[in-house]
Amino acid sequence: MQRLNLKNNYTLLFFIFIVAFALRFYNFTAIPFTHDELSALSRTQFDNFQDLINDGIKFDGHPSGVQLFLFFWVKIVGFNEWLIKLPFALLGVGSVILFYFIGKKWYNETVGLIAAAFLATLQYPVFYSQMARPYASGLFFTLAVFYFWSNLILTPEKKFNRSLVGFIIFATLSAYNHYFSLLFCLIVGIVGLFLIQKKYYWRYILSGVIIFCLFIPHISITFAHLKLKGIGDWLAKPSPAFLLNYFSYLFHHSKWVLIITSLTIIFGIIFRSKEKFLARNFLIFLTLFLTPIIVGYLYSHSVDSVLQYSVLLFSFPYLLFLLFGFIKEQKFFVNAILIFAILITNTLTLIYERKYYEYGYQSIYEKIITDYPVEKEAVTLFVVYNIPKIQNFYQNRYQVNQKNIINLSNFPSPSAVDSIISEKSKNYPFLYLGAISSIPPNIIPIIQTYYPKIVIKNNYFLGETSIFSKSESGRDNSFLFSQLINNKGYSDWENINKSHYIRNDSLTLKSYQIGPEDEWNCYYSFILKDIKAAKNDFIDIIVDFTAEPLPKAIEMVSSVQNKDKVIFWSSTPLEQIVNQQVDSCIGYRTYHSIKLTDISSINKNSKVEIYLWNREKEICNIQNIKLYLRKGNPYLYGIYEDIETVN
After folding, report:
1. Closest of 483, 452, 450, 443 to residue 623, by C-alpha
2. Cα separations (Å) of 167 from 135, 289, 560?
3. How many CB atoms are closer than 10 A to CB 206?
4. Are strands 520-527 and 509-514 parallel, antiparallel or unpaired?
5. Which of 73, 172, 526, 532 is surrounded by the most beta carbons within 10 Å?
6. Are 304 and 297 a contacting pair, CB within 8 Å?
7. Quick one: pLDDT at residue 285?
8. H or E stretch covering 620
């Protein structure tokens, strides 16, 4: 048999390296900071090391390694985005090369090339390689741990002590980097207890003791982190569909990536290796890939949410060995076809389907400032909904006068928002709103009470900017699809007693009275596909009513169901009024909005139910309940989710 030309295969590795470098460094100086990076950088501005530990690290929930690095790194390079990100991007590229050699060591060059090609081109590792957070560093450190560990297990007779030192160094770095990279090292270490040769057993045990001793200075910080339990309420608990969504995300939510992956697997089945250790290897990599997911899922449901895509980056590469590890070594020509097919497919879908370099390179925090029409500031009210620290960072960068900006995140309630918009609307015919994704969904309908039309709307990853107008020259971004009281007579709502309708002098319906005998009132239901709702849209419910005194226990309720299983429930008390006397016919108004994209497992066949719950059997005149479908931002979570509309 003709011997394989290793130089040719290294040529393919060089092409993989070039693509990996290009995808991570394309327009590198234009990559903005993410929220996580800005949060970390805000915790580098301490005068001494002790304050950094107490105020910048202990309450954060991450090990101190990356934060310590950033503390010193920004003193050298300042707050320049590309320089701060540079070490992490280089580690991301280095991970691709290191992963090839791991694949070659455990299987063969073909498997190493295929695995490296996927790691080079999938959005998942590309995105986190461009972020100055503990993900690209953790990926490189854990791959280095596994590389040296592989030497200890597979070829211990070759420079065992040197590999042991490498294992200790990178396991310690992983422990200081992220708790999930520490978890990965712990899993690797335990697996090694069953695989290490007996003559090396005690030296292997000693390496674990040394790693633990090197981590002892961090123990007090780790105990402080354990008291935090998790990372806060902003991260939802993972649903049963988490793993399926994760797989879809890994492969670009793309049929083309799925096809090339499936064809490669089928090729491997046809030309599979007959190595005797394949079953053992499969179990090892299955353990490395699944265990962090299981641990994260159980911890998230029993203690606090921690499971998200980013923390699984360290174990993700071993999924590629599960998918392609059984492929036997191929000749250069076959390798070239496989590698270029993978590189081309993944790169094209990254650029054109995922639109990564369009939306991934735009910072909503920066756009909130730069999209404001400065030339029309005399007639345009400047309103934002943003994290104050980040808002101040970009205001200072662009030298924007803070006195001219209203940040709605500083207002305690919807009624306070309504009051300031109502007052300012008297002097401004236009309103500019720049908002991050966490803006309460009922703020937009409040604004549109005074500025009903949209002139401009810009959609970004994690937010949007818009200009609203009082005039009729703009366009609608929502449409009325049902109301309790209309000019055509009785509506098709349920839980209605027709004798409770109140008519005006012309005998047309004026209002509907709920009273002491009515607990459940004004029920309406619909299927999302029937109103052509997309997964990123909103349902806005506006309730106009009169009552004396104000009802204390009447709530506007909404729920979403999948096959009679409630997947979402929320309510707004009518006493939480937003404004009074909006016009001469209305006493009070309350807004209740549903953000569809934040509801787990929602789909086009989901059923939405709307009703009033009169818990204390109070009396209230409902002048109308109007239901609007408001178009949302299809790119809001586009870095992670499929970019599509659900019609």
Report:
1. 483
2. 19, 20, 51
3. 12
4. unpaired
5. 172
6. no
7. 97
8. strand 620-630
Contact 428, 379 (CB under 8 A): yes
* Cross-strand partners of 527: 607
Cα–Cα distance for residue pair 68/583, rounded to 1 Å: 58
How many CB atoms are closer than 10 A to CB 565? 8
d(CA 28, CA 22): 9
User: Quick one: tokens of 327?
Assistant: 């492929």
Task: Determine whether domain 478-630 maps to CATH 1.10.3470.
Answer: no
Q: What Å distances lie between residue 484 and 240, 257, 476, 582, 619, CA to CA?
A: 37, 48, 21, 18, 17
Residue 266 clears pLDDT 50, i.e. is over it:
yes
**Mean pLDDT of the region 391-396:** 91
| Structure token digits, residue 221 | 């910080």
C-alpha torsion 85→32→99→320, nearest 10? 160
- Phi then psi dihedrals of residue 370, to 5 deg: -80, -20
Report which DSSP code applies to 54: I
pLDDT over threshold 70, residue 644: no
> What pLDDT is recorded for position 7?
59
Nearest-angstrom CA–CA distance, 88 and 132: 6
Q: How far apart are CA 258 and CA 122, in angstroms?
A: 12
**In the chain, domain spans:** 6-359, 364-469, 478-630
DSSP 328: P
Pairing label, strands 405-407, 380-385:
parallel
In this predicted structure, what is the pLDDT of residue 30?
Answer: 94
Whether the CB-CB separation of 468 and 448 falls below 8 Å is answered with yes
CA 135 to chain centre: 15
Cα-Cα end-to-end distance for the chain: 57
Distance CA 632, CA 555 (A): 25
Element holding 485 (H helix, E strand):
strand 485-486
The helix or strand, by DSSP H or E, that contains position 460, with its residue range, turns out to be: strand 453-460
Q: What's the token pair of residue 120?
A: 């080079």
Residues 6+ apart with CB under 8 A from 262: none
Angle at 23 between CA 17 and CA 24, to 5 degrees: 90
Q: Is residue 487 very low, low, confident or very high in pLDDT (cuts 50, 70, 90)? A: low
Strand, coil or helix: 290: helix
φ and ψ at 196, to 5 degrees? -65, 140
Lowest mean pLDDT among 139-143, 227-231, 495-499: 227-231
